[in-house]
Amino acid sequence: MFIGLVSQSDCFANIVEMEGTKVSYLKILTYHRELLVSRLRSIQCILDNLLACSFVCEEEVEIVLRSATRMDQVRKILELVQCKGEEACEYLIYVLYKVCDAYIDLQPWLKEIDYAPSSDATALSVANTDPISRYSEKLRHEMSRDTCFIMSYGQREETRLEDLYTDTQMDLLNDCNESLGFLGNLDQLLGDHAVFNPQGEIIYVMGDAGVGKSILLHRLQNLWSKRDLQTDAIFFFKFRCRMFSIFKDTDQISLRDLLFKYNCFPDHDPDNEVFDYILRFPEKVLFTFDGYDELQMNDLMNAPEVVSPDIKAHPVQLLDSLLCGKLLRGSQKVLTARTGTEIQSKVIRKKVVLRGFSPAHLKTYISIHFKEQAHRDQVSVQLDACPYLCGLCSTPLFCWIVLKSFRHLHTMHDSFDLPETCITLTDLFLLLCEVYLSRSGSPEPSLLKKSPRCVSETFVSGLRPLAAFAKLALQGMERSSFVYSQEELTECGLTEEDLTLGFLRPVSECDASGGAATFELLHIILHSFLAAFALVLDEQAAAGSILKFFTECSRKREPRCLPFDFCFCGSSKSNEKAPFEKNEHLQFTNLFLCGLLSKAHAGLMEHLVSPVLLRKKRALLKSYLSTSVKSHLSGLPYHNSGEGRKVHVLPNFLWMLRCIFETGSRDIAQMTAKGIEADFIKLGYCNVFSGDCTALNFVLQHRPRLLGLDMDNNNIGDYGVKQLQPSFCKMTIVRLCVNHLSDSSIEVLAEELCIHKVVEVLGLYNNCITDVGAKLVAQIIEQCPKLRVVKIGKNKITSVGGRYLANAIQRSASIFDVGMWGNSIGDEGAQAFAEALRNHPRLTNLSLSANGITSKGGRCLAEALKENTVLRIFWLVQNELTDDAAPHLADLVQANTGLSHLWLINNQLTVAGIKILAAALNLNTALKEICVKANQLSEEEEEQFGEDKRLRFH
User: Fold this and answer.
1) Does residue 740 come out as left (phi exceeding 0), alpha (psi in the -120 to 50 range) or beta?
2) Mean pLDDT of the chain
3) Cα–Cα distance between 95 and 48 in angstroms, integer?
4) Sheet containing 518-521: order of strands
5) CB of 678 within 8 A of CB of 638?
């Protein structure tokens, strides 16, 4: 409540009483004059509206503006409107009511006086001309203009965002990086759902290169500009972290300049009201910061943090203080970075990882690119024939390259089909370059006759600009700076005509200060590809220089948690520059180098480089890879376990496999497979995506012995499972938990595992398997005589699928551990499992937790288990068991069958039911524990059972 308001409330009541039912707005202004003088801002908006409605004249406006201070101006306005009468006084209050953003300090006062505009007031128009509202509109207008078209993929063709944007899978994570399910829309990204740290400042969006982080922010910005985004933010500032590389270490700017100079300046704001508003109401501000992994961290890491908005500092310091919450605490901030960029949890509010296109998203994207059904069918057939290509197309950037190339080359030439064999990333980017280079010097194709396609001719004719772009990319890679000036382009031999090919795009953010135009290559992966091309084309440098980035990637660096180290960790940092904490861009360069020097591309590259030099570089690379593979495999941390010799590989192992696949060398693949001495490989949490499964299969198919493979908590999807199909014949352990698998993956598994019958462990927890997939898993259980463990919890299995599985388990003589936690089998499924349990010779561990089982199902299970002497661990956690089930469970306990662990946590048992179980427990010698935590007992009631320690409440 405002100062002075309470003391004047009685006076206000008297006003109403004196005037009867009619409020005197003139007297309201008189009584609240002191409050209005101190709180009223945005004078110009009030004067504009009073003048427009003829309550004041221009001479009176000039008199007001001649007053020395804002408070004096408010006093003059109040005197003027009070002289004009009741209508003018109410109109002044009506302006404060309508332009609420500008007069946010007075909104509580309007509620206190219970202001409701009269019909006379609402008949008058109000123009919102205050600087705050006008600046918000200016931001929306400019952001709409900047985001309504996609400029990412070549300057010749602008595509409307709405005509090309397709949602991707946005996987919401908790603080332990466990999936909470997919977001339905971008509004949920900004919402409070799944916020695990309310004190955090950042909504952290991560994903692999090319998965769509930037275009997601693009979409977010566009929605805000059209008021289609559910947020209270009236200001939206967007930054690309790469732009901070244009600043010199000595540059110093203020927070105000950072916001306005690199977005847009407010107009007609002599009193600095917009910036003052931002400082006072940071919750009205939304930021996006794209590509934090590309931010350079150098000597600034020793600089003190910035806590005052008035202090000038280096832009990177200001950025860091914004993200930490030292500046504009409470504003909304969305930060993107590549997967694996570690950020301290204390600054993260919520976390989302982008998983790329699902099959449904891919179909939508194809339909957007190809309007004719015949073309859609042709593309779909070719993609279905190449699962690896489908896997690559789950990454939006790669999908765009495939579809764009298909459409362009199909238009230009008589025929164009995607390769029938597995194509590599190198193939994709060669395809993209072919499309761009074919624009140069090629006449438009005739309507009656199309030109034949000759890849080598396209590259030979376009070698000059391609070499220039490659040189530019290599220079940027060497100095870890990916923004280029016009002078740098010219020095590399690029012309104005070359800029229209599509490789480069302007960096508009860096132009806001009025400086010279700057450019960047359209994507970081293209940057890496061109840098690799430069290494292959270079005939002046020593042949061994092609290995420079392999050497860089092999260096061991101390792990650091980014960002904000210098905000939280003091200044004990090295002055050594570390532009990128992740070296993924270098890894991609190495990968493309392997692809370009492969035998598959020798025919093309020999048209561009001396064949003798090409063979020399290829031999050097093969020798280096062979040596590195042997060294890497010998250094892996092996250890013995019950599942044989086990190794948990490091992420660098995955890059090694990718490089081997790009080479296409069977010799290196065979050597790698023989060098893996482990019986069980763990690849959990290694960020494996579907396309990587082809590289993994390329090596594992050469392994002579059986192997266990744990790929839990990755993103391989259905396409990845299809790529691994040839290797399933050797797998004794198949762990694919948390990988977004559907029933189609289970179909592939059933086909392979039932043929070879070597599988012993099958892990499918937390996927998207329905009853259809459950029937296929049941088939695997029945037909694989060595299968011992099945984990299929947290899927979408109902009582129908539960019956399939229970019947198969009943027939299996080998299975001893089954996990069904988190399905929906209900009482019908429980009854089927009861029959399976009765006299089962092998099953020792069973979890039916969180399956909607009531006392009816509990009774059936308890009755059946009285005839089972093998089961040792039984979980019925988080079901709906009441005291009605207690007597039957007590009979089971009293039967002393050999059951050692019974978990009934989080059911609906009361003290009466627990008493029945406790009495039975006194007659049991085998049970080690009955866990009944989180049932319907008070602490006092739980204390009654303290004597028997086997009855556990905690």
Assistant:
1) left
2) 88
3) 10
4) 484-485, 518-521, 504-506
5) yes
Helix (H, G, I), strand (E, B) or coil at 802: helix
pLDDT of 56-84, one tens digit each?
999 999 999 999 898 999 999 999 999 99
- Alpha-carbon gap, residue 99 to 1, rounded angstroms: 20
pLDDT at residue 840 in the model: 96
Distance CA 588, CA 506 (A): 23
Report how far Cα 517 is from the mean position of its chain's Cα atoms: 31
Element (H, E) at 182: strand 179-182
Residue of 534, 469, 457, 556 whose CA lies nearest to 505: 469
The first and second tokens of residue 821, run together, are 């936690």
**Helices (H) then strands (E): counts for the chain:** 42, 25
| DSSP strands (E only) in 810-889 | 817-819, 845-847, 873-875
Q: List strands edge to edge, sheet with 332-338.
A: 179-182, 170-173, 348-354, 202-207, 332-338, 285-290, 235-240
The two tokens of residue 484 are: 């280029």
Contacts of 406 (CB under 8 A, 6+ apart): 379, 416, 418
817-837 per-position pLDDT tens digit: 999 999 999 999 999 999 999
Question: Which DSSP symbol is given to 228?
Answer: -
- Position 173 confidence tier, pLDDT thresholds 50, 70, 90: very high
Strands (DSSP E) contained in 653-727 are: 680-682, 707-710
What pLDDT is stored for residue 304 in this prediction?
73
Higher pLDDT, residue 866 or 643: 866
By C-alpha distance, which of 502, 508, 497, 503 is closest to 476?
503
d(CA 954, CA 950): 11
pLDDT digits (tens, 9 = 90+) for 216-272: 999 999 999 999 999 999 999 999 998 887 888 889 999 999 999 999 999 888 889
String of b and e for 234-250 (b: at least 16 CB within 10 Å)?
Answer: bbbbbbbbbbbbbeeee
**Total Cβ atoms within 10 A of residue 802:** 26
Residues 6+ apart with CB under 8 A from 761: 643, 708, 732, 733, 734, 735, 787, 788, 789
Contact partners, residue 156, CB within 8 Å, separation at least 6: 439, 500, 502
Q: Pick the closest to residue 847 from 904, 768, 914 (CA basis).
A: 904
| Dist CA 932 CA 646 (whole Å) | 36
Can you tell me the distance from the alpha carbon of 469 to that of 452, in angstroms, rounded to the nearest whole number? 26
What pLDDT does residue 435 have? 86
Among 154-168, 251-265, 594-608, 905-919, the least confident range:
154-168
Helix 666-675 × helix 651-663 angle, to 10°? 150
Is a pLDDT exceeding 80 seen at residue 514? Answer: no
pTM: 0.83
To the nearest whole percent, how much of the chain has pLDDT over 70?
89
Long-range CB contacts for residues 520-523, cutoff 8 Å, separation at least 24? 520/242, 520/482, 520/483, 520/484, 521/469, 521/472, 521/473, 521/476, 521/482, 522/152, 522/153, 522/154, 523/152, 523/209, 523/210, 523/397
Chain-centroid distance of CA 371 in Å reads: 29
Ramachandran region, residue 171 (left: φ > 0; alpha: ψ -120 to 50; beta: rest): beta
In this structure, the number of other CB atoms found within 10 A of the CB of residue 749 comes to 25
Distance of CA 892 to the CA centre of its chain: 48
Strand 817-819 and strand 901-903: the pairing is unpaired
Residue 152, pLDDT score: 43
